[in-house]
Write a structure and sequence with these properties.
mainly beta; 3-stranded antiparallel β-sheet; 1 helix
Length: 78
């Protein structure tokens, strides 16, 4: 398995609620299931850690305007 194909931790569901109909510009933020999908969308090859320290997992992967790749890691002791 490539480090780019690691999916976010399923124990932490991401919930987005839209209270009102969207008006105006669409959101520049796009969510992805894997780093690889986001990297392909941005047409980049990100430099990421090959191994995460024990207890760390990817929580979410997103892009902002194809300019920023955001990978959120979380630590869970155990």
């Amino acid at each position: 398995i490539s480090p780019f194909d690691v999916k976010p931790d399923p124990a932490k569901p991401v919930v987005a609620e839209q209270a009102a109909p969207m008006v105006g510009m669409p959101s520049p933020i796009h969510e992805f299931a894997t780093i690889n999908e986001a990297a392909k969308y941005m047409n980049i090859m990100p430099h990421l850690p090959k191994v995460l320290p024990v207890g760390y997992n990817i929580e979410s992967v997103s892009t902002i305007n194809k300019d920023v790749l955001q990978v959120v890691y979380v630590y869970q002791a155990g």
